[in-house]
Amino acid sequence: MARIVITNGTIIDGTGRDPIERGTVIIEGDRIASVEDRAHRGEPGDTVVDATGQTVLPGLINLHDHAYRKRLRYVTPGVSSYREASNRLVRESPTYLAVLSASNLLIELRAGITTTREVGAGYDISVTLRRMINEGLLPGPRMFVAGQAISMTGGHGYWMARQADGPDEVRKAVREQLLTGVDHIKFMATAGLARYPQEHPQHVEFTEEELRAGIEEAHKHGKKTCAHAYATEGIKNAIRAGIDSIEHGVFLDEEAIHMMIERGVDLVPTMSGLYRVAEYYREAGDQATCDLIYDLALRPQQESFAQAVQAGVRYGVGTDSAGEMVEEMLLMQEAAGISAMDCIVAATGNAAKIMGMEDRFGTLTPGLAADVIVVNGDPLSDVRALRSIVHVIRDGKHFVRDGELYL
């Protein structure tokens, strides 16, 4: 069997262990065969990658993504506002959104993301894209999908969600999503900023009883659950109802954090999503809206994240619509003072644990999926080195070689 031998690089395995200097990662087929603390010349027939001066890591895992919305990061001030661009997307056809999503996923793969947890797309877009990537018809990250998020009537993101009211209807909505073959279920537990001031970040939407019915149904079928949750009481409703992860977690308090630790609930903060939108308005000359986003949500979110980290809540890296992985890590460092190694583990080994997939991928461990990236420089000195992608390998397939897509 042909092998890929990545040698002479500094290896960060995603577990938090100390790096291996001038080590070697050997890939056989779609699996990691070995991780060695020595350089390796390879054998006849091997593809040898000399990673001298570079760092070898597991592929990155984006725990909170909306593939069809990623281009909102690049809205041009003066051409249209962020909200106008977002509303325009909602009116596009499913075909347009599917092709746009495929294009965006290719960009994500190029950025070193080998696994993405899609947490809500309309129609059957994400389910279909997952199938096409799995069948090798499209290049992209490995996808785990929620299909349509579930919201109350008129709730956050209702325009692309399955709307449901009352415990029985929420349970039915979950069953409908399960029928399409989704990997996990996403609930809109609270409002957000999408339609502010019609919705407010402190508004609670689903009741605890509604969430419990849906979560119980998902868990019966072995599916994990996550909740869009800003408002404090909405976060607590979701935790009491049995949620697996809180997305955003803008207004955590001491009780909510204690509940998360006690029940093993994870946090995916996605600060970069709000940050990018706020900065868009600053660039557009609308300082008032920028300040509003910071005051209403982003600063409280940073404070909540810092408190959660200090208390010992497990967390992962997610970008939401407009965010970016390295940007998210920098914001995590700014908010909570965590190390670059903590950021990398949050985007690799811990992310896989949050998904319940640590026995499949997420670390450079023999027997796991061969998801490997190579970057120039030392991300432990500056996580921005993770933007300098040289190689991307997913399931043993070399998608990026020497910085260029290889399809």
From TrEMBL:
It comes from Thermalbibacter longus. It holds the Pfam family Amidohydro_1. One of its GO terms (molecular function) is hydrolase activity, acting on carbon-nitrogen (but not peptide) bonds. The lineage of its organism: Bacteria, Pseudomonadati, Thermomicrobiota, Thermomicrobia, Thermomicrobiales. Residues 55-397 form the Amidohydrolase-related domain. This is Amidohydrolase family protein. It comes from the Bacteria. InterPro entries: Amidohydro-rel, Metal-dep_hydrolase_composite, Metal_Hydrolase, Metallo-dep_Hydrolase, OTAase-like.
